[in-house]
Amino acid sequence: MAASAESMQASSAGLILRLWQSSIGKKYVMAVTGLALFLFVIVHLAGNLQIYLGPYKINEYAHLLKSTPAVLWGARAGLLAIVALHIVTALQLTAANRKARPAGYAVGKPVASTFAQRTILVSGLVLLAFIIFHLGHFTIGFVDPALLDLRDIYGRHDVYRMMVNGFSNPLVSIFYIVSMGLLLLHLSHGVSSLFQSLGLRSRKTFRFFDRLAKGAAVLLFLGNCSIPLSILLGIIK
Amino acid sequence: MNLTLRVWRQKNAKTSGQFVTYQATDISAEMSFLEMLDVVNEELIKKGEEQIAFDHDCREGICGSCGMVINGTPHGPLSATTTCQLHMRFFKDGDTITIEPWRASSFPIIKDLVVDRTAFDRIIQSGGFVSVSTGGAPDGNAIPIPKEDADKAMDAAQCIGCGACVAACKNASAMLFVSAKVSHLGLLPQGHVEADRRVLNMVATMDEEGFGNCTNTGSCEAACPKEISLDNIARMNRAYAKALFKNKLA
Question: What is the pTM of this model?
């Protein structure tokens, strides 16, 4: 029994190693981490949209998220690992791709591929810069430490006021909106592509996944941009 | 018609190449693209210059030998057509045509437009076959095969291994080629027996040969003269996962 458990363990490590060393295995990693991050941005937006329900609701929600440190830090560590894995794998795959095609063609347009597909690395890397700024802005506090010290009348972190104050700066809001445009571009290819990488897409389901990707990307863009816009236009005060 | 050709000339893999401009005069619209190049080469022979080297064999679109990138598109502007089946009526008098070889580090240039595609042969050698014992030929209808499986396998079997998928892909990925072979053999009962071993070995060889990774853009499918579908790549992605996990449990 002990021997078989040992060999099972050894072969599990072998499986992960084999996945990591193969081109298709790395694409599975991209797809699974991408799917996780896609689900995260949906949940993140759903949480943020509570700003429309007033200060009490969104501050309560934020308080709930932060009430159990183990859960909070577990989720943060998990997200960080997923983001890191997504980016490291993408860079490794891209390096291999550049090596496989060192010289391009002198003339002609790329065959069939779309702008969003060809720029997915660029949109992803700019999004990384955005994520660093975003965390500095609303989580770590290196952009404006005063935003994290706001308290509501119940003594909770005043997330509502933090968002209103944070987005009152038009430059910050514009940067957010441009970044959400890149997320739109990134997801419009990524969300459909991940199902192809996992082998779950076919000619019959292509349209469904393509529409799912584009539809979800547009809805996320509109939802995310509505918040800074509402604040700039004075709808949320 | 008269055309201006910008052709990639390169002596061998070690030297660097460059574009050289040639005039193709009195070209008939009925000629194939390769026949047009034959005419240009005749002129070069008369002038005592080195001919433009290009691969070709059957000239009827089934062998997979020919192939060049014409104005940035593998096999030229006509979809589902090999270079040898592309006719000059799809060009206009006075056109400038840029002709380049397949560009991929796994397909080193041998000379001019001829590239070394033996990487494909090595992928096939690593699993793109069905092992059969010798003996009497089995009865044709002894193994029933569902029509749908047969159709999918036959669609994948159309692949002629020309390499246009690699040439079109911005990552020089061979996924369409490998997935066509994996699908073609794995969907049929005779080849199904070795399906797991096949996909693992062929993908490993594909990676060793230095082909790029699939970013699911669909350029390969658009450039393929045999219209091999991206469905095959999805099928291979599925088969690879299945084979890896089964391999782990075995």
Answer: 0.94
